[in-house]
Write a structure and sequence with these properties.
The complex is a heterodimer.
Chain A: H1 2-30, H2 34-65, H3 90-93, H4 106-119, H5 124-150, H6 155-175, H7 180-195, H8 205-212, H9 233-242, H10 248-259, H11 262-270, E1 274-278, H12 284-296, E2 303-310, H13 318-328, H14 338-350, E3 355-362, H15 372-382, E4 387-392, H16 404-410, E5 412-416, H17 429-436, H18 446-455, H19 459-479, E6 489-490, H20 491-500, H21 507-519, E7 524-527, E8 533-536, H22 541-552
Parallel strand pairs in A: 1-4, 1-5, 2-3, 3-4
Antiparallel strand pairs in A: 6-8, 7-8
Helix pairs in contact in A: 1-2, 2-5, 2-7, 13-14, 15-16, 18-22, 19-22
Chain B: H1 3-14, E1 19-22, H2 33-45, H3 67-95, H4 97-113, E2 118-124, H5 129-146, E3 149-154, H6 162-181, H7 184-196, H8 202-211, E4 216-221, H9 229-242, E5 248-254, H10 258-264, H11 267-270, E6 273-279, H12 283-296, E7 303-304, H13 306-318, H14 323-340, H15 359-367, H16 369-381, H17 390-402, H18 405-432, H19 437-447, H20 460-486, E8 499-506, E9 509-516, H21 521-541, E10 556-557, H22 561-567, H23 571-580, H24 583-586, H25 604-613, E11 618-620, H26 621-632, H27 639-655, E12 659-661, E13 668-671
Parallel strand pairs in B: 2-5, 2-6, 3-4, 4-5, 7-10
Antiparallel strand pairs in B: 8-9, 11-13, 12-13
Classes of the chains: A alpha/beta, B alpha/beta.
GO biological process, one term (chain B): DNA replication initiation
Keywords (chain B): DNA replication, DNA-binding, Nucleus
Domain Origin recognition complex subunit 3 N-terminal (chain B): 48-344
Chain lengths: 553, 675
């Protein structure tokens, strides 16, 4: 892809040019004779010339920057060949500013031969290099040659071009005095460094993408986090509680600033727009605040019901959302496929024309409701005149969720609501990070989460969980496995034990209890090779013991 | 338990639920019916008419605006937009009416003509999904109104399998009349039918039709390109086979061409189709109509300034947004105008019996640029040399201008609109290249334009122009008659017939020279008439820029930014900015001064983001952690705490879609975004 290459090059040139140039002219203070300078130029030649096409403008200004009153004697040395292009500085002048010179001049060709003779006896590597250089030069010459034929400098521009070159060359010519042996390897070393520079700054992002995605092995170190003991949920939440954000007051201010727009947003909502808040930070508290405001400002003559949907919650399904919406309208919608539920919902809305249903969706781009069908259902809801939809979007790519059709039925008005609030509820930080590192599968907030869930459940559910944990621990002991994930206990066996201990009386009740656990992701179930259902608890042994302790106490 | 605590408890309880009802007053049992009913009754008791509502308008002028004016703005908004919206809706309805009629006629005729084939209408809708929606809605309405029939709309996204589609069709047909008839009996009837048969058995439909006969059952494939061809090939023969018992008629929305659709179907299937093709109105022409009646028309309450209009129209083309999005943008402009501009009610205030302007209004007036232009003009015209007290004079002039400014501004606006719209019309007449151009121009100034709601002009200038133009046309007719009698054809010097190009070759070079033929006396007269006509018209074409018209602020909406922000969000830019320069949002002291390197005081995600920017496509988390620790430990000593912050920041980056897990190396993550 030639265009990419060309673009890629130019910024590198910009960066590398000045330091190289500087050092080169420093080196020139030491060097002497004419030959070395020629050879050096040759070593550089290929690379520099490639750059010159891109850097044409730059080097013009650069050489101008170097400008000094030119010594006149240098100028006439050239035999103007076919064209009067930039001829004068050739003999010794172009070393320091190689880009400014014409690579096709006769003197140069001679140089090449001289260099090759010189290079062959040296090392194998040197020969390789020169071969590569030759082929590169052949390529470049053909390109530059074409360039030359039609771009003949004439008029004022040409004069300026020539004179600036002259000046630069003259200056450099005065200083040329490097010893050959020292110079060449030094140059080469430098060239290598130029080839793999630290990523140049301020590249446009698409350029960076190509720069980063070059084929080949990634060049990252082999360090791992093995020395670091990772955080557990317990430790994380303990630390989190101690943590105070230094920007707390600013964050509050920012939210208050957004809250000032509430009347405007309400107005937009009343005019049939839906609202989408985007930007960095959790917008849950902001929506909560908006809900409060909406609640207080029910338009006269209307009944307003507010439903908050948590798009980030792992267990969110369209059915849950629709049935909650139904509850808000005092209708019990029979569970079924969402389109059917939708019909019932819309029918009941139609029978209550004074009711406004405000739906606040936290994280409309959350993974559980990202699917196209869910978004279509939401769009259908949003386009209903009695329904007002306010959504928050957390990722930068949320607008890709909707095509033209959905977008027009949503009829969104977008607002930047960057809050900088941490995602406390939306994210399960520890699990996310561990999953990212490929360490552990996901589960709810560890021991704390389990005890939180169990607190809201009846006593026999707690007993059942205690039983389950106990059995799993015993199984672990027996198998002598450290990780809890692989150990399961038979469903039948647990059921029998539960019946024995009067935790439940029928399989139906047992299933109901298990369903509750399953919904909260504190148990997992799978089938083994012969089809026996195995129940398990997705925690490590230590955590299980701690949970069991909590339960006993 | 204090209320604050209760509040947070409530929140914590709801945080992990899929959805809950927000009801802070009786929150402990969300959605208990008995309590809700009471609440709803209470609110109903306090009801008042919606006409009075202020739509959430807030007092402007630093809160000093009187409620009367707030209410007036809300009322004006409702009236103005209501007027424009009705007009747009009418136009939209009308625009498709031709297609609708054609389809209805075809459907009526095809029933007999089709024999053993299934009648199908192919409607070429163009690529815009959003406008298809409107078309099919209208089709559904008009076809059901024309005959006793049922209409089922199918979208490719819903059509996963043959069974699902049949289920949907049967359900929609059997349920559809439950709300139109509103009788429970019928609804149970429909359900009974479904109970007897499998819910994808067309026999159920047949049984239903027997009890409730109807002429057509329309099945509309809205986006026929989206349907799997296999599915269509199954469905069409199936419908045809049932046609003797169930009167199916198919409608296809076609975005590309019928040939492409045909190529996707089996030949045997195509042979069963008795079809006709209809072209829906293309969105471009609808847009033009809407533009004329809602933006360009002389009587629209708010005029939209050029740059904003241009960006709105560009969006139509660039983003293939439907006409709906144009209407939304227009509506939003109206909303902004009346919501945020305290001067917006000035013009209409006298008509609506509003009180006199507040002192704050007058002050705001004085700062408006158009007012200052008017003031400068007044002062330039008056003789200041013999005024003793300049400041008193100045104050006097300001007061003069401000009194009764509403009606004066209305008059000036009227004049400007009349001139500007007529000017545009003249330019349009020029572009048509019509032969009786002067007649067209006279028409524009004398009678106006029906479509643009432009009445006859009442300006004095225009009257003069009209007399001049009439004179010139009579002169022209006389001249033409004369020329006819003499048997010569008339030319002006602009006609081009009377110049010839001469070619001479001198010293192997070609010289071109133009020669003008001598003009006859009649031709000279003709030339003069042409020149005079042009001069007379161009003298009236110039209008001042709208924002220089006195108090243009009260009827001109010209800010581009709100519309752009609200309809074309640039989330990536916003995210990039908030993470790269948090102080832009937080306005905090600590992060503002620019050190080299990463500042430890930044929000942690920002710090990590800045490190992220410097990484390649694969990121070593261990190294990232080291760097993060080095940066943050300047502020926070405890390593575990830093690790906690690191965890949080990394999890957020993941949630934002910046990184994902990678299996290429241990403890590495892959970079996903190059913002």
């Amino acid at each position: 892809m030639p265009p990419r290459k060309a673009q890629n090059q130019s910024p590198i040139v910009v960066n590398s040019q000045s330091p190289r140039k500087r050092s080169r002219s420093n080196a020139n203070h030491e060097t002497e004779s004419e030959t070395p300078s020629k050879r050096r130029r040759d070593a550089l030649g290929a690379d520099d010339i490639t750059n010159r096409e891109n850097a044409d403008h730059q080097h013009e200004s650069m050489t101008n920057g170097f400008a000094e009153p030119s010594p006149a004697e240098k100028t006439p040395t050239t035999t103007p060949r076919k064209r009067g292009r930039p001829p004068k500085p050739r003999p010794n002048g172009d070393t320091p500013t190689p880009r400014a010179s014409d690579p096709r001049t006769p003197s140069k060709r001679k140089n090449k031969d001289g260099e090759d003779e010189d290079a062959t006896p040296r090392r194998q590597a040197g020969a390789d290099r020169s071969a590569r250089r030759k082929s590169a030069r052949a390529l470049i010459e053909s390109v530059v040659g074409n360039d030359d034929s039609d771009a003949e400098p004439d008029g004022i521009a040409g004069a300026i071009y020539d004179s600036s070159e002259e000046e630069a060359a003259g200056e450099d010519g005065d200083k040329t005095d490097a010893t050959p042996s020292k110079d060449t390897p030094e140059k080469r070393g430098r060239k290598k460094r130029d080839k793999s520079p630290t990523p140049p700054r301020d590249l446009p992002s698409h350029e960076l993408y190509f720069l980063h995605n070059k084929p080949g092995k990634p060049k990252t170190s082999n360090n791992t986090l093995s020395a670091l003991s990772l955080l557990t949920h317990d430790e994380y939440f303990t630390l989190l509680r101690e943590q105070t954000d230094r920007h707390q007051s600013q964050i509050e201010d920012l939210e208050a600033f957004h809250a000032k727009s509430f009347p405007q947003w309400t107005f937009e909502l009343s005019q049939g727009f839906s609202i989408c808040l985007y930007g960095y930070g959790s917008k849950r508290p902001l929506l909560q605040r908006l809900a409060k405001q909406l609640y207080q400002e029910t338009p006269p003559g209307k009944t307003q019901r507010i439903v908050i949907v948590n798009g980030y919650a792992q267990t969110t399904t369209m059915r849950d959302i629709l049935s909650t919406l139904g509850l808000a309208l005092n209708v019990r919608i029979p569970a079924g496929p969402p389109p059917n539920m939708m019909q019932v919902l819309l029918a009941s809305l139609a029978s209550a024309p004074d009711t406004i249903l405000a739906i606040l969706v936290n994280s409309i781009d959350g993974a559980p409701i990202r699917k196209a069908t869910h978004q279509a259902t939401l769009a259908q809801l949003a386009s209903h005149p009695q329904i007002r939809l306010i959504a928050s979007a957390d990722t930068p790519d949320f607008s890709l969720l909707w095509d033209v059709g959905l977008r027009s039925s949503f009829n969104f008005a977008f607002h930047d609501a960057t809050t900088f609030r941490p995602f406390t509820v939306e994210l399960d930080v520890v699990d996310d990070v561990h999953e990212l590192l490929g360490r552990k599968a996901r589960r709810i907030n560890g021991r704390e989460g389990v005890s939180f869930v169990l607190k809201s459940l009846p006593q026999n559910a707690r007993n059942l969980f205690q039983l389950l944990v106990g059995e799993v621990l015993i199984a672990m002991e027996e198998e002598g496995v450290g990780g809890g994930e692989d150990v399961g206990v038979e469903y039948r066996m647990i059921y029998n034990k539960a019946v024995e201990e009067f935790i439940c009386s029928s399989e139906m009740a047992f299933r109901t209890l298990l369903k509750e656990f399953h919904d909260h992701q504190i148990i997992t179930s799978r089938k083994d090779a012969i089809g026996t259902e195995l129940l398990s608890v997705p925690f490590g042994k230590e955590e299980l013991e701690a949970i069991l302790e909590d339960l006993m106490s | 338990m204090n209320p604050e605590r209760g509040d947070t408890d409530l929140l914590a309880q709801h945080d992990y639920q899929a959805a809950y009802i927000f009801d802070p007053e009786n929150g402990e049992t969300p959605g208990r019916p008995s309590k809700k009913r009471r609440v709803s009754k209470q609110t109903k008791g306090a009801s008042s008419t919606t006409e009075d509502s202020i739509l959430g308008f807030v007092p402007l002028l630093n809160g000093a605006e009187k409620p009367d004016f707030v209410k007036l703005r809300a009322q004006l908004y409702r009236e103005s937009w209501g007027k424009v919206e009705n007009r747009i809706q009418d136009a939209l309805r009308e625009s498709n009416s031709v297609t609708l009629d054609q389809v209805a006629t075809f459907v009526g005729e095809a029933k007999e003509a089709a024999d053993d084939k299934i009648p199908s209408a192919f409607i070429i809708t163009g690529s815009n999904l959003a406008s298809q929606n409107l078309l099919f809605e209208q089709l559904s309405e008009s076809l059901q109104a024309a005959s006793k029939s049922k209409f089922v709309r199918l979208r490719s996204s819903e059509a996963v399998s043959l069974r699902a589609m049949l289920k949907k069709i049967i359900r929609e047909v059997t349920d559809a009349n439950s709300d139109s008839a509103g009788e429970n009996l019928q609804m149970t009837n429909g359900q009974d039918i479904r109970r007897q048969y499998l819910d994808y058995d067309l026999e159920a439909l047949h049984a239903y039709i027997k009890t409730d006969p109807c002429e057509h059952i329309f099945v509309a494939f809205e986006d026929s390109e989206g349907f799997e061809s296999g599915l269509l090939c199954d469905l069409i023969p199936l419908f045809n086979a049932w046609r003797s018992r169930v009167p199916f008629t198919l409608l296809f929305g076609v975005a590309t061409s019928t040939e492409l659709l045909q190529a996707r179907l089996l030949k045997s299937v195509c042979q069963q189709i008795y079809g006709a093709q209809f072209d829906a109105v293309q969105s471009g022409s609808i847009l033009e109509t809407v533009f004329k009646i809602a933006v360009a028309a002389a009587d629209v309450p708010v005029r939209i300034a050029g740059p904003l209009l241009r960006s709105m129209l560009e969006r139509q083309q660039d983003q293939v947004a439907g006409i709906q999005s144009f209407v939304s943008s227009l509506k939003y402009a109206y909303m902004c105008h009346f919501y945020a501009n305290a001067l917006s009610p000035i013009l209409a205030a006298p008509d609506h019996g509003a009180p006199a302007l507040q002192a704050e209004h007058v002050e705001a007036l004085q700062y408006s640029s158009s007012f200052q232009i008017a003031l400068e003009k007044v002062i330039a015209e008056s003789d200041v040399s013999d005024v003793d007290d300049l400041s008193a004079f100045f104050v006097q002039q300001v007061a003069n201008l401000a009194t009764d400014c509403g009606s004066r501004a209305a008059a000036q606006r009227q004049t400007w609109v009349s001139c500007a719209v007529r000017g545009l019309e003249v330019l349009r007449a020029v572009s048509t290249g019509s032969t009786n151009f002067p007649q067209l121009v006279i028409e524009i100034y004398r009678h106006g334009d029906e479509e643009l709601r432009l009445g006859p002009s009442s300006e004095a200038d225009h009257a003069a122009l009209l007399t001049r133009l009439t004179e010139l046309t009579t002169e022209l007719t006389l001249l033409q008659k004369e020329a006819e009698s003499k048997g010569i054809s008339l030319h002006s010097k602009y006609t081009g017939h009377n110049t010839t190009v001469r070619t001479t070759v001198i010293r192997q070079r070609v010289h071109l020279s133009k020669d003008t033929m001598a003009l006859s006396e009649e031709d000279k007269q003709m030339t003069r008439i042409v020149d005079d006509t042009i001069a007379a018209i161009t003298a009236n074409l110039d209008v001042v820029p709208p924002n220089e018209v006195f108090l243009a602020e009260s009827w001109l909406y010209d800010s581009k930014a709100p519309s752009r922000d609200v309809f074309v969000p640039r989330p990536r830019v916003v995210f990039e900015r908030s993470l790269a320069r948090p102080s832009d949002y937080l306005a905090c002291e600590c992060c503002q001064e620019s050190h080299d390197g990463v500042q430890p005081t930044l929000p942690t995600t920002s710090i990590l983001y800045q490190m992220y920017l410097e990484t390649g496509s694969l990121i070593n988390v261990a190294d990232l952690w080291t760097a993060f620790h080095a940066a943050v430990s300047k502020e926070e000593e405890d390593e575990r705490k830093v690790l906690m912050l690191f965890y949080r920041a990394l999890a957020e980056l993941r949630a934002l879609g910046f990184v994902k897990g990678s299996k290429r190396k241990a403890d590495h993550v892959a970079k996903l975004k190059w913002l």
